[in-house]
Design a protein that fits this description.
single chain; 452 residues; alpha/beta; 9-stranded mixed sheet; binds 2-acetamido-2-deoxy-beta-D-glucopyranose; catalytic activity; Epox_hydrolase-like; AB_hydrolase_fold; AB_hydrolase_1
Amino acid sequence: MRFLISLFSVPVLCSWGFSARPSRRPGAHPLIRVGGESTTCRRVHGCGRRRGRSRVRRIGWRLQSSTSETVEVRDPADESRLTVTPLSTWFAAVGGQAEQRQQFFWSWRGHEIFLDSFASQENLDKPTVILAHGFAASTVYWRETIKALSEDGYNVFALDLLGQGRSSKPYSNDGGGPLLSDTGTGSLRPALPSEVGKNTETNVEYSISLYGEMVDDFARQFKLEEVVLMGNSIGSLVCLSAATGDCCIDPYLSSRVRGLCLFNCGIGLNSMNVLKNPDFSRFQVALFSGLFGALNALIFGNRTLLRYLLNVVTEDLLRDALRSLYPRNPDRVDEQLVESFYRPAKTGGDGGVDVVAQIYTNEAGYTPMEYHDRYKDLLDSLPLHLIWGTADVVTPLTGDVGVFYCDRVANNRSGKQTTSIELVDAGHLLFDEKPEEVHASMFKWLNRKVVT
Ligand SMILES: *[C@@H]1O[C@H](CO)[C@@H](O)[C@H](O)[C@H]1NC(C)=O
Ligand SMILES: *[C@@H]1O[C@H](CO)[C@@H](O)[C@H](O)[C@H]1NC(C)=O
């Protein structure tokens, strides 16, 4: 019982942890040696990842429907769908409130997206920062990051992804309607303390692209001209999707992104993407896809079981699980943080069950490596900074994504030295576990590479 709960309650810990440590043929990857805390990861020898692209394709057939359809395809001509409110007039739009740190619900396609923001007119000369969280998390764990950025003169918007945190968790019954269009009115309203977004009966297919579109629409609606995207875990993939414009038919953000900062980048919407590792043999691929299939059928796709687990999970169980995600500083796990994971599990209803099942079992989208292949020019020229917690068991540095980025930095793969990485002795949620160190690295990068 306890095992099943922790399987769910630690954000995808088991499957992500597994994901990042596929068994490899010996010698296929270089060793990474890192010299203690906060060192840059230079000592990567040889070339990390074999570019077995045809092989990726071959093993990818069952994982990757690259033509995956999102539920709603946006008509590029339909600009009127969003009421565009330039950030410079945001201050008028939100109506003379003295507080610059404010919480809102932003109406997106008929859903309510929770937003924690800091916006000041004085900060308009700096790029605006958008923060995207990881699975089962919310804006709350960005508390120190929002504070640090705002004190350094940035306007910051942290969003709760649709279906998570305090945002709407649409019920996706078969009878549900398609995603709604925004009417263009009432697109922003202040959130009351503890208020959660209204759930609707809508068919939503969760994907990295859907979240990428959400971020893109947010930037479009508020006419952000210079943006820095920051993400953790799955949120990193959301940032890659939005920054490259892969999410959208008519992307707004991709020409306006000035930098990308990823904190322990994930491999995909779920761990199915590990099977794209070109070093896996056919046998391993078959074995692991069988295993994933079985786990999905028995546990992650079993809504009856998930509903039960969400009902019985307690704050104590969550606190234990969270402390294991803060291995170097477990005392940072306070009531506010526990509550931010606990409440969404209790208030989501069937929509909350559905989002968990979908995130585990849906098409995983591209890996970071695939984004770099597909959008090479764009991602080679964009300042990209990675801050990696070396005590992370969810997305360890020695996993495919960590190895890829270390190799990229150490061996100048972008050809322009636009990618940088710094390591911090912390876990998966490093910016909340070791805020000073992590933010020092973030600001150093912002000041050297972005705001020059
Ligand atoms: C889902 O889980 C429940 C409870 O553990 C179990 O009774 C049911 O058979 C499972 N359904 C499927 C399709 O595996
Ligand atoms: C990085 O690669 C580019 C292109 O290959 C090269 O011109 C540049 O000198 C390299 N920089 C370093 C420091 O190796």
